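If your schedule permits, I should be very grateful for your opinion on a structural question. What I wish to show you is a protein chain and, alongside it, a tokenised description of its three-dimensional fold. Would you kindly read the sequence against the tokens and tell me how you understand this chain to fold? Here, with my thanks, is the record as I have it:

===
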Amino acid sequence: MKKVTATFLTLLIAATIGVHAWNVPKEKLTYNVMYKWGLINKKAGSVDIVTKPHADKKGFNAVLTGATAPWADHFFMLRDTLKGTIDSSNFYPSYYEKIAHEGGAYDRDLLYYTRSGNHVKANATLWRRRKKETEITRSEQVHEAEGVTMDMLSSFYYMRQIKFADMKKGDTVKLNVFSGKKKEYLTIHYQGMEDVKIGKKDYPSYHITFTFTTEGGKVSSDNMDAWISTHATRIPLLMEGKLPVGKVRAVYSGNIPE
């Protein structure tokens, strides 16, 4: 159950796609996170993502909150918050923060970005307290990369503007992703158009698969799948990841435009 609750937040953040003419979004997306194994299909948690225009009118602020359900708290309690400030013109982040309370441990990552041409640098400050420890340690790191570089929150919005309708099945899009601790590479594999069932209705969607790798090309997490509405809002309707026992699914619970 620890893997169920720890996976759903990353699954939701990573799995998204886009709106082509989206300047300063204002929206709230809600998801039910389900644990499925055979006939078992039980709600394991929930996620909300709220987006509001930034005061400078050139960007927007985004806040993601995730929590496990009461029954899942007995196995692995999770309360996570992700915050970011993102440029509306290219979806590049200037600030990113993750505050995580997971299974008795506490993590906080704080990143500030600078860019010079194609070069991206992020100064990261990290706070950590492991389970059963009383003191919080503090450390600093510097991440650097060339090309499109995101974090796990800003990638949600960057990928929502990718023109999947112009892609062929098997095409890929690659970008850098900074976490507090490391740099990873995210590859989006386009699988083509499919209908996805939400509730009792089928909706046309773009099916994509995500892979994460490290500097040496080593796979850093299991593949994940997402089905994204073909509507102009490009709402992620369903995200799914396999577990050693069963799978975890993030299912959109708001109104679905047609």
About this structure: The chain has three helices and 15 strands. Residues 2-14 form the longest helix (13 residues). Residues 1-7, 13-22 have pLDDT under 50 and may be disordered.
